[in-house]
Design goal:
Layout (H helix, E strand, L loop, with lengths): L2 H47 L7 H24 L3 H24 L6 H23 L3
Helix pairs in contact: 1-2, 1-3, 2-3, 2-4, 3-4
Amino acid sequence: MNIKEIRKNNTKDNENNKKNNYIYVFKGIIISILITLIGLLVFSIILTNFDIQENIISPVVLIVTACSIIIGSIISSVKIKNKGILNGGIVGGIYILTIYILSSIFLGDFSLNFYSFIMIGIAILTGMLGGIIGVNLKK
């Protein structure tokens, strides 16, 4: 093999890795959203059947969201195997952006408040944490 063939093969490998990385990040986002839906469905069933105080709702939503993002980031970063902070942050950021857009469409309110910024920050930070964990897990 000469140098040109080696460079050509390396370029193809890098392009395939980038495509695979996008797919893994997308899978992480989808998994996070599915876990959130399941978690909030279970919580809503609990809310309808038991007498729970209203001040419990926001922390539970925050915990379900954070756990979902961490799991999705771990799953995507385990496959990618590098740049866990970046990939996890992307999973968290796109996840929260998707959730914000969907909830804004259904509620008809596109405003941002202090709680929204807290959720954005937590989503990105938990995504980064999940990315770090995912990269460092050994198979």
